[in-house]
Design brief:
6 helices, Four Helix Bundle (Hemerythrin (Met), subunit A), globular, 142 residues, mainly alpha, single chain
Length: 142
């Protein structure tokens, strides 16, 4: 009986395994404009106007989660820049810049959970720095 259960669980694990690696659907600029920019703006806006209820604070928490998860999106292999060139996901500095979004998002999430405008204001420095470091090197120049 135990052997049968083990085989069934093994079969379930195989059935749930992804058949291929996910491919990016959008270019880097679209991800920036669709994910990072709006979520960062939600976090930065707390400095101007504090959320007034739990639902608005949850929006800030969700934005911080979006920032944190965006690191995975911009490091996804196969993603292109808007000029058609590949995103340099293997470049050490690009990886460092992208991965800096994780602690920045985590810090902003913790700050939002404390529901303090001042504490959220403190976390925005690391978020801004993470963005600026990458933009100074990789952002398309007009």
């Amino acid at each position: 009986m135990r052997a049968l259960a083990t085989m069934l669980l093994a079969g379930l694990a195989i059935a749930q395994a992804p058949s291929k690696q996910a491919q990016p659907a959008w270019d880097l600029k679209q991800v920036m404009r669709g994910v990072l920019l709006p979520n960062s703006n939600i976090i930065f806006s707390v400095q101007l106007k504090a959320p007034k209820n739990d639902m608005e604070w949850r929006t800030v928490e969700n934005a911080a989660i979006g920032v944190q998860e965006a690191a995975n999106l911009i490091l996804m292999s196969g993603r292109l820049r808007s000029n058609g060139q590949p995103v340099p996901v293997l470049a050490a500095d690009y990886m460092k810049f992208a991965k800096a979004l994780v602690p920045a998002g985590r810090d902003c999430l913790k700050a939002a959970q404390k529901k303090s405008r001042d504490i959220v204001g403190d976390c925005t420095d690391s978020l801004s720095q993470a963005c600026d470091n990458c933009h100074n090197v990789y952002r398309d120049k007009p």
